[in-house]
């Protein structure tokens, strides 16, 4: 095996000879120490095939002339001939070498971070913390200690009870298990539950305190719904003691809202002329590079829209990769007078109403009834009507000594039930 390797490195050729003194030629080679192998005689053509080292091939010329035989090289093998072919394709060989070195370099880095098992914390928040402690895509693999990283994550996030960091190839896998931290409830000060707006009581359930209203009552903003004052009576209905608590309960009010939205019939319609200009922007660290067609001048555009697309290159690999690319498209526009049709106006006003209802929903309102209609005027369209919402009241008013002595706090004397009886 070693002889084959050294033979390939030195190079060898397959030779064909023909003539009448082939036997004498072989004997002369043997006498002069020239090694021939894999000899093959072709009886049909009366030629001899053999293989010989490249350094010995140049010694055959005197013997071939003496024996009057003709030597022809059939095939070439080995490193010297391979290098000769590579010289003709130098650019390809350089590219292969650079690719190999690049792969070798990239294999020593971390190019991916996987986070699994989290529910409360987002993947982005964990990656931002890792970036702050110099763990990011592109870090040298040998500098990363999995055990140390596990300890740092546990110290940073108190609600992560178990964490595992595993390094596989050019990627690290972070698996976490979160635990539920039971927070100690703070003692709430004595307070009344009051109405946040005008409305009608739909239902009331008292958990602590004294109910001051019942289902069906109309209340105004600031009225006490559940009082934080609890009166304790004796056997003869004599007031023994007053206790002050933080009023708790579920009070749902029906609230009416008068909705009105106006859309003028005439408007300025945006029309694109079709003329555009693109500017390509490349940000490397704090430097910006621009590329655009100088023949297209923006000064000829009276008004235009700007659309910017792009962002950080390779954001999944590393948050520190300092290269960003953007494409800015400038589109020339003009404005023309136009009139909304009733269908177009209805669609726009309906979208506005849906957005308003979504905002109310996020604020805790539940839609109960929608009585809005589209009306057409001389110069505008109008969406008008009443909206009825259900809203749970959660506003409290602290009880102070002054409030206790003041009887103008709008409390009504009741029998202390939950207010659901008629």
Account of the protein in words:
Helix content is 25%, strand content 42%. The strands form 6 sheets. Strands 9, 11, 15, 20, 21 and 22 form a 6-stranded antiparallel β-sheet that branches. The protein has a 4-stranded antiparallel β-sheet with strand order 2-3-1-4. It is an alpha+beta fold and 422 residues long. The protein folds into 5 domains: 82 residues, ACT domain (Alpha-Beta Plaits, 2-Layer Sandwich), CATH 3.30.70; 94 residues, Roll (Ubiquitin-like (UB roll)); 74 residues, no CATH class; 59 residues; 66 residues, no CATH class. It is elongated and about 145 Å long. Strand 13 and strand 14 form a beta hairpin. The C terminus is likely disordered.
Q: Would you count the extended β strands for me?
A: 23
Residues in β-strands, percent: 35-45%
CATH architecture of the largest domain: Roll
**Spatial extent as radius of gyration:** 45 Å
Low-pLDDT segments: 405-422
| CATH topology call of the largest domain | Ubiquitin-like (UB roll)
Average pLDDT for all residues? 83
- The share of residues in helices is 10-25%
- Helix-strand category: alpha+beta
Distance N to C terminus = 105 Å
CATH homologous superfamily of the largest domain? membrane protein fhac
Helices, by number, come to 10
How many domains would you count in the coordinates? 5
Shape: elongated
The major β-sheet equals: 6 strands, antiparallel
CATH class of the largest domain: Alpha Beta
